[in-house]
Amino acid sequence: MDVPLSWQLAKLAISIGIVLGLSLVAERVSTRIAGLLAGYPLGTAIALFFIGLEIAPAFAAESAVFSLAGFTATMALGCGYLLCGRRDGLRGVLGGTIGALVAWWLASLILTRFEFDRLSGTLVTLVAIFGFTWLYRRIPEIRATPRPGGARWPALLMRAGLATAIVFIVTALAHVVPASWAGMLAAFPISMYPLLVILHLTHGAAPAATVIKHYPAGLGSLLSYTLCVSLTYATLGLLWGTLLGFAVATLWLLGWMKLQSWYGARQAAKA
What we know:
By secondary structure, the protein is mainly α. The protein has 11 helices and no strands. It is globular and about 55 Å long. The termini are far apart.
């Protein structure tokens, strides 16, 4: 079907806003919080919503089932970037990107060979979350240092265009691929990858590695959101399904951050 111009403009505005917001959080608050928020249902929510709008809510709901397992491929992408993007500057970004895309593609090829339901897809990603969290436990916490004069808006806007391009590619491909691959594409880190590029180019590889370290922990809210919309898009529609999904994801994220604060305070008291 022909996609109205207003829908295309909405995708453009939302995608740019998300990337700029995450970049400011990483620079002015902390890369740890940015990593957690990168796992919040932002890019995936945009992709699944517009897939449902442009094709059908039922197709988006079916794709969301495969997205549940597809977040494992997203974590593989982060691992590939971490291993291949250790240098600072453009060379490190290019190496990290190549490693990330290869890792994502291989993981997606493996995952699409299986028939997932909501339970099995969620369990696969939960196992991957614990596995990658354990692997990343020794990565140091490096905060991005704010630069004099604040954010470089022209550069940020140019890089935000990358997220917009990913959203357009994902939603366009969803028209010609089966629901399994549409779900894998919707799970692609639409907001996290441009954030890595921004941090890597402006602050070096270490802050980008910190975002990757905390990304698996933030995926709980994304899993909650995706599971919710897989159940509600076909019955409640896109609007109410999306709102309910964000409510569930927010409750999970607030609970997780509170649990982390409690655990941190307990560890500090023991020291």
